[in-house]
Amino acid sequence: MKLAVSRAPLRLEDLAPVLAGERVSVAFAPEVRRRIAAGRRVVERALRSGETLYGINTGFGKLARVRISDAELEQLQVNLLRSHACGVGEPLPAATVRTLMLLRVRTLATGRSGVRLELVQKLAELLAADVVPVVPSQGSVGASGDLAPLAHLALALIGEGECELEGERMAGAKALAKAGIAPIALAPKEGISLINGTQVTTALCCEALLRAENLARHADLACALTIEALKGTDKAFDRRIHAARPHAGQRVAAANLHALLAGSAILRSHADCDRVQDPYSMRCAPQVHGACRDALAEARRTLEIEINAATDNPLVFAEQGEILSGGNFHAQPVAASADRIAAAVADLASISERRIEQMVNPDLSGLPAFLTPQPGLCSGFMIAQVAAAALVSESRSLSFPAAVDSIPTSANKEDHVSMGPIAARKALQIVVNAERVVAIEFLAAAQALDFETGLETTRPLAAVRRFIRRTIPRVEADRALSGDVEQTARWVRSGDLVAASVRAGGVVR
After folding, report:
1. Could you give the angle at the alpha carbon of 123 between the alpha carbons of 320 and 326, nearest 5°?
2. Which of 159 and 47 is assigned the larger pLDDT?
3. Is residue 509 part of a domain?
4. 54 part of the active site
């Protein structure tokens, strides 16, 4: 994938292929090169003037009052990377690291960091050669930026740390040599500019958001399939109801459900039955799914700003020739968005699990117990519902907001932090859990519809059922279902199930 860095803002959709595993190469527009060079000139002019500049000729954090001699300025930047490379835990996936490298390039390209063009190009060079630094997933509190993980990333530029190249993990110096890339010698301010920023939190949060948006579409589709299987009604999705309470997400979810169920022979067959209202997990799906969509929309607005923002400290304003210290490295906006995603998606999984229960429980469904043709001898989907309940419980535990939990650091100089990476990692895990819960709902609904022999569902829903059945057969006798669940979760992640419905004329926004 080739990407031009210019005045045009980066879009979340630009990140999707990188998060999916594609390699990326970056080209810089002429105005970006000029912007970076202008910012660097301000730093060099300030150094010549002899003024005291935080992180450029001073120590860091509590040590900001310690003035560093001119002869030690380059060593100061190297020491910063080495001392801050204190991350622990499992490494971030290569796709996540490529994404945060791209985000680092984008923020440095604003020219507000005051680094040399050579440094930004070197980072882009690593990206193009697919030299992927090994970045531990734990150790950042999300202010002053994602210091520890970004330090591991930055060490690769100077030939230190560890990297992955062609699937092999090796020393950073060896990786650069194999790729034919020379390490860079850092100039004043460049070390702090490489590690001050929210890019780890942001990369993780962007992945959680994009997957959650896709999941929301699949949740509507699974719900429609469940409504058919349980002989529910589409009356609760009448547009007049949702126009009377016009939340944007609610209206979209209701429109999806109404369109997917339109013209159903199954619905017509029980139009005059004595059931007045469906359970909330079906009837109120637009309200619950819609609230999730609205939370995701708010998170998207925040992330679209963040991926194009300058999050360094101090910041360089070439227009006025000034260098100003501030707090744009604080990841609170992204952390709060991650917490919002986490809570919304946890509830999306919760309502999906309730629909699964409606299908497997014979007291509620009117279907064979646990959706097996041989209740008693076989347990059918009994433990599939248990697995969904376990995933929902875990997600609820993870959904406690991380961004409200601050532990002061750096001798209380950094006395309020965002815990952004923790919030983002939790949000992503909840999305993974929810993808599996919705996958179980798809499987249960397909199985439940298999008991309907006389009538066919709508074309889009029938297409989804056929798509599943081409690979996963009906459960006639008990078999291990974990592989079926994982396969269906992969279809959810890839968008295949929504695509199958759309090809058959379905509308899922």
Report:
1. 35
2. 159
3. no
4. yes
